[in-house]
Amino acid sequence: MDFKQKRGKGLNGLTSSYQRARLVSIFVCICSLVYHSAICIFFYAIDLKPMFYYNFVSITIFTLILIFVPRLKSFVFVYNIGLLEVIVHQIMADYYLGSYSSFHSFILLMGLLPFLIFENKKRYALPITALSSLLYIYFSCRNIEAHAQVTAGTLFGIRCMNITITVFIILFVVLIYTRVVYRIEYYLKNHSDSLENEIKMAAIIQQNFFRQEIENIKKYEVGYFSRPMVGVSGDLYDFYKTGEKLDGLGVFDVSGHGISSGLVTMLVKNIIHQEFYNQPDVELWEIVNKINDRVIEEKGEIQNYLTGILVRLYENKFELVDAGHPAPILYKKKTGECSFVQLGEKAVGVIGIAGFPVYYESLYYDFEDGDELILFSDGVIDIKNEKDEYFGKERLLEAAKLNIEKSAAEQVSFIANSIYSFCGTREQNDDLTIIVLKK
């Protein structure tokens, strides 16, 4: 963003780089006018005409700069004029008053100003500062005697005045930027509080949007746990039911985190729910194909995609379609076997990427009384502890086996506690969702 775009923006003007540069430029010009007016009178009084005439020219230069600064879009030209004025002034002051007068302190000041005036133009600021620093070192190392007849007391007074005004300008600039930092911190805190409240509200809306009554479902027992990394979750879980009859369920994971992913889940939830019931006699893989087409069309330019598993329940079996999602766990009561479902090798692709070839496959599994199906998002197995170790599939499977005979709600609670015990103090790095379906 250039200076023109920055004009008039920011908090009280000070947080705009243009406004800061203008304020610093105006203040430096005013200080220069006051200084050159005083020194001009002084040189006239001691009859040092070359310095008097040059300082009169300096007054004219800084007056013109002060008039035009508020109208300028860039300060490069006026800064170069100011720098040239200071260098010429230094050369003349060294010749007539000697090195002791410390006029080179203004060169040091001009070397500091580029980083304040040209915040967005570091390529310009760096060489100017380097040049000013070299000139300052050069003039500091010189030891030139005064060619004009000036008393030691006068030179000492000039030296003190030069150093004082340089320090004063630097301190003023420091105060400006201290004020800027304070205002930015104040703004960010208020903005953060406001954003946090909005995220909390968005999370409540999303939770209410996802909430379903599943306690009175016939033939099945359901337990679920979902916790977002931030207030709004990119995980989507849903139960498809007709009255007290559970027809199916699904777990989906939208790419990314935060509000954008959360908004996509709300869009996708309706699409999946509609397509699940639009063609009840069509195999599930065809429905997921239709879901993919609609998600691509309706999300438009949004870059998020999603993975997921969609399940349709029958009398003694279920149909499952995987779209790039981790395989669920299936427990068989008769055999006592508890393992990850073997997904089809032909299935390829996620949901929601335009131009990406996909192939979804319907897989059928027996599902009898006492059997269980455990669905989860990838955040469950990808979560890490302080040692940077993944919770992983093996730990998840072990946690599932330990409480397989308990209720679905108790199993979900145990798995969630196992995950957080494993993580310790490490923060959650993804959304977590677990569903236990027990027949």
Count of individual domains: 2
The proportion of strand residues reads 5-15%
Q: Could you say which overall geometry the principal axes of the C-alpha atoms support?
A: rod-shaped
Q: Which CATH architecture of the largest domain? A: 4-Layer Sandwich
How far is it from the N-terminal to the C-terminal residue, by CA?
60 Å
Query: Main β-sheet: number of strands, strand sense, barrel status?
Result: 5 strands, antiparallel
**Helix-strand sequence:** HHHHHHHHEEEHHEEEEEEHHHE
State the helical fraction. 40-55%
Number of helices: 13
User: What value does the Rg take, in angstroms?
Assistant: 36 Å
CATH fold-level label of the largest domain = Phosphatase 2c, domain 1
CATH class value of the largest domain: Alpha Beta
User: CATH H-level name of the largest domain... which superfamily?
Assistant: PPM-type phosphatase domain
Keywords: Hydrolase, Membrane, Transmembrane, Transmembrane helix
Organism: Treponema bryantii
GO molecular function: phosphatase activity
Protein name: Serine phosphatase RsbU, regulator of sigma subunit
What would you note in describing this structure?
By secondary structure, the chain is α+β, with helices and mostly antiparallel strands. The chain has 2 domains: 185 residues, no CATH class; 227 residues, 4-Layer Sandwich (Phosphatase 2c, domain 1). It is 53% helix and 14% strand. The strands form 2 sheets. A 5-stranded antiparallel sheet has the order 1-10-9-6-7. Strands 2-3-4-5-8 form a 5-stranded antiparallel sheet, with helices on one face. Strand 4 and strand 5 form a beta hairpin. The longest helix is centred in the middle third of the chain and has 59 residues. The chain is rod-shaped, with a radius of gyration of 36 Å. The N terminus is likely disordered.
